[in-house]
Design goal:
Elements lengths: L5 E7 L2 E9 L39 E6 L2 E5 L1 H7 L6 E9 L8 E9 L4 H14 L1 E9 L2 E10 L2 E7 L25 H13 L12 H17 L22 H11 L8 H8 L16 H17 L1
Parallel strand pairs: 1-5
Antiparallel strand pairs: 1-2, 2-6, 3-4, 5-7, 6-9, 7-8, 8-9
């Protein structure tokens, strides 16, 4: 059974529904390795210094942003951490919109939300209400260190979360030269329109996704299996991963929380007052100056480490 991306809660208003976020896609790509054609040994990719040609160990690599050609500002781990969102274990629904308002270009990657123990009531409540109203929940979720916009909507018995692209990530169709002319403007006759309509109607069908398969992948896999068979190689099947542990929750008064949500138009606070106070006193909350460096900055750090090591050896 697949492992969850993370376990947390789906929050809307003052209600929290414990869920496990499971991948909603299955990668079917065939992965290839690059070999040296002379002796069939794998080709290894190394991290190499562009100036010296020497391999760079992971511990000496830093992240930097090139703000101008050949000029870099080095980001320390705490710089990236300070920009990361605080909440990592909740999907916070901020609004409910009509499902038809979001165009397909916004949808990026699907996940399935699986309810935790004793969470069926809240899960079904949200699923059926979304189905009845024809709306989907728009919220934010943190996966690893990045915050994403997401949509939550019903699909059969499931609540599905689909990551959304931000508007800045979508190319406006008006950026391209497109024909704005109507049929008559480009001399399309009524007979041609009627014929095209009849063709489309003759090919009309219900959407059956199971009817569509990656035929190229299937043919290529057969070629690979034939190659493996002719070489006398035995394939190994990977072990199944361990099943995930279910999240737990307490019994809650849904009517009370719904009334409070309607009265206050607020969602569940992510942290208690005591934990929030502790967070403001934590070292992470203190702003740290960002370090700017030229392209030679990593080399200076490496030289400093070498001189320190030399002193210790002496």
């Amino acid at each position: 059974m697949a492992r969850p991306i993370w376990n947390g809660v789906l929050s809307f208003g003052l209600l929290n529904v414990p869920i496990s976020v499971m991948s909603g896609e299955r990668k079917m790509d065939l992965h290839f390795r690059m070999l040296d054609g002379r002796d069939k040994n794998p080709v290894r990719y190394e991290r190499v210094n562009s100036e010296t040609g020497e391999e760079v160990p992971w511990k000496s690599i830093v992240k930097a942003f090139e703000y101008a050609k050949g000029n870099y500002v080095v980001l320390e781990p705490e710089d990236i951490e300070s920009a990361a969102p605080e909440s990592h274990e909740s999907i916070d629904i901020e609004a409910f919109v009509d499902a038809t308002e979001i165009t397909p270009a916004y949808y990026e990657k699907p996940y399935v939300l699986v309810p935790g123990k004793k969470a069926d009531k809240g899960y079904v409540l949200l699923r059926e209400t979304l189905r009845k109203t024809g709306r989907i929940g728009i919220g934010r979720v943190v996966i690893r260190t990045r915050e994403y916009l997401c949509a939550v909507f019903p699909q059969g018995d499931a609540l599905v979360m689909n990551l959304l692209r931000y508007p800045q990530e979508i190319v406006d169709v008006d950026d391209y030269k497109l024909p704005a002319a109507k049929a008559g403007d480009v001399r399309i006759s009524k007979a041609e329109l009627d014929m095209a309509e009849k063709l489309i109607e003759s090919m009309a069908s219900a959407w059956k996704p199971e009817d569509y398969k990656d035929e190229f992948r299937d043919r290529l896999r057969k070629v690979i299996e034939q190659r493996v068979k002719s070489a006398g190689v035995t394939r190994r099947v990977d072990d199944e991963p361990e099943p995930p542990a279910d999240a737990t929750t307490n019994v809650v008064d849904f009517m009370s929380l719904l009334r409070k949500s309607l009265a206050t138009h607020k969602r569940t606070p992510a942290k208690s007052e005591s934990s929030a106070k502790a967070k403001t006193q934590s070292p992470r909350s203190k702003a740290k100056p960002r370090k700017a460096a030229s392209k030679a900055a990593p080399a200076k750090k490496s030289a400093k480490r070498r001189s320190t090591s030399a002193r210790k050896s002496a």
